[in-house]
Amino acid sequence: MTLDRRSLLKAAGAAGALNVVWPLSAGLSPAQAREAAEALGADYDPAPFTLGVASGDPQPTSVVLWTRLAPEPLAAEQNLPDVVEVEWVVAEDQALSRIVARGTAPASATLGHSVHVPVGGLGAGRHYWYAFKALGKASRVGRTKTAPVGSVSRVRFATANCQAFHDGYYAAHRGIARENVDFVVHLGDYIYEHGPVGGDHVRDHEGPAVFTLADYRRRHALYKGDASLREAHAAHPWFLTWDDHEVANDYSGTGGGAPFMQRRAAAYQAWYENMPHRDGGESALPDPVIHRARRWGDLLELTVLDLRSYRSAQNLANGTILGAGQKSWLKTGIDRAPDSWHVWANSIMLSQLRGRPGGSYMFTDQWDGFLAERKEVLNHVHSSGLEDLVVVTGDWHSAFVDDIRVDFDDTSSPLVGTEFTAHSVTSGAYSADWNATNGPLMGQANPHLKYFEGNRYGYDVYDVTPQRLSAHMRVIADRRDPLSPVTTLTTFHVDRGKTGSYEDPATKGSPAQWRRD
Questions:
Q1: Where is average pLDDT lowest: 76-80, 161-165, 339-343?
Q2: Three-class SS state of 149
Q3: CA 475/CA 454 separation, integer angstroms
């Protein structure tokens, strides 16, 4: 059976939705599924390394290297031996001629033929290149970087979040791959769990909502069918957290009966199999440990939070978004924090958000649904004397800049930090009309809200020095264009030792639906 892009798009247009010709919902074989996916814009590396390579969780002497063998990326199971030996190599140059470490790792069917290699003995603050070999084939070459130690004069990092496959191409990740950054932080919603959405989309999900391990594996493979995502992984090391759509919309990690817990276990395993994640627990299964603190020399401490695994239901007097263990760990980290910038990787909005003056909270799935714990944590930040706190957040599909106060309802309460909520990579935001109407209402209802812009998509780049942290909002022109150019919409600064942010005068005239002058 031969499929061509023109025929597929013609059939899709006649039906009014691309999903009708997508492979698995049409009952095609895995090989035909891949052909159909590629005809509609997906793209894969040569087998068996179709999903590319990645690195993650950089430390001064160590980094985790990742790949997954998937000769037929959209197959429920791979036609591979139960265990395949994978060679890996790390070198000081892209040609892999100055080798500093090498070895083999087993890729087992139990973990989807993925490998996670924690390479040690590396030099601090240095770039390295790496690659894999298996079944007589070689992977592409990836680049990574270890964390520095001691005095550091600058760090640059990017954040990305919310990359719904059906909502557009990953031109934002293409931009990230080309940025001069030390690392990338992904803030969640790496995949979406629902089925095809139909309508006017350049591509769509490959089948119905996902529930099983095989389902989630296919969904991750579909998302990595975007060449720009694989390029961004190969270009820089990543830190990772997750939000809800890696499992199910608005889920609580501690709620639900046996069927849901089975679904969660499948989703967590598939996430681990497909990410360059250094697990912090005794076993990668069934619950990867996400939260961790990492230092980039003396300049920056990055605290990665997990706001899904341990949370209770929303809107309870004694509810928790962190869980008792993670909250204790976070507060201990605050007490022991070094004299540096403190960046929290936070998947959902920390700041209060009311929809209109005197109105209710817009979404209690975020920290607004856990009021007592938020106040407890922010009071602890204030009482400990922690300074230079910046929270980077995803989830909202729009950009916000907020002052963080201990009590958001009291404008005289202590100001303890700044939150930057970033645009999404592709996931759909509210309409331009909604943003124009509601941006000013949100601004009036939330005195701590400084900026709102909801009409664009992209990522953020943070430039950090001992004197200042600058947040550059990088946006793409068109989600429907995989080669869409990237520009800087605006830049906000936070000065060291001074709580609060301010917009760069050079970009203050850029479009936005709300600014607090």
A1: 76-80
A2: coil
A3: 11
Report the predicted TM-score, pTM, of the whole model to 2 decimal places. Answer: 0.94
Is residue 479 a contact partner of residue 169, using CB atoms and an 8 Å limit? yes
pLDDT digits over 414-430, tens only? Answer: 999 999 999 999 999 99
How far, in Å, CA of 139 to CA of 81, rounded? 19
SS (H, E, C) 365-395: CCHHHCHHHHHHHHHHHHHHCCCCEEEEECC
Q: Are the C-beta atoms of 327 and 379 separated by less than 8 Å? A: no
Q: Which two tokens mark 2?
A: 């031969």
Contact predicate 429/435, CB 8 Å:
yes
Nearest by Cα to 492 from 449, 456, 454 = 449
Q: Which residues contact 398 (CB under 8 A, 6 or more apart)?
A: 421, 423, 424, 429, 430, 435, 452, 453, 454
**Separation between Cα atoms, residue 246 and residue 272, nearest integer Å:** 11
- CA contacts within 13 A on the Cβ side of 256: 19
Q: DSSP character for 361?
A: B
- The Cα-based distances of 227 to 41, 178, 223 in angstroms read 9, 13, 9
pLDDT in tens, 103-116: 999 999 999 999 99
Closest to 489 measured CA to CA, from 515, 468, 512:
512
**Structure confidence at residue 20 (pLDDT):** 38
In the numeric block, which tokens belong to residue 435? 């943003």
Here the tokens at position 254 are 């501690």
- Residue 281 is predicted with a pLDDT of 60
Count of Cβ atoms closer than 10 Å to residue 227 Cβ = 20
Q: Is 175 helix (H, G, I), strand (E, B) or coil?
A: helix
Q: What is the rounded average pLDDT of the residues 227-243?
A: 98
In one-letter notation, the amino acid at residue 463 is D
pLDDT at residue number 28: 66
Burial state string for 388-410 with b = 16 or more CB within 10 A and e = fewer than 16: bbbbbbbbbbbbbbbbbbbebee
H helices, E strands: number in the chain: 9, 23
State the DSSP string of 446-462: -TTEEEEE-S--EEEEE
Tokens of 386: 């922690």
Read off the pLDDT band of 174 (50, 70, 90).
very high
| Cis? peptide before 48, omega within 30° of 0 | yes
| Contact assessment for residue 35 and residue 43, using Cβ atoms and an 8 Å cutoff | no
Those residues whose C-beta lies under 8 Å from the C-beta of residue 325, and which sit 6 or more positions away, are 310
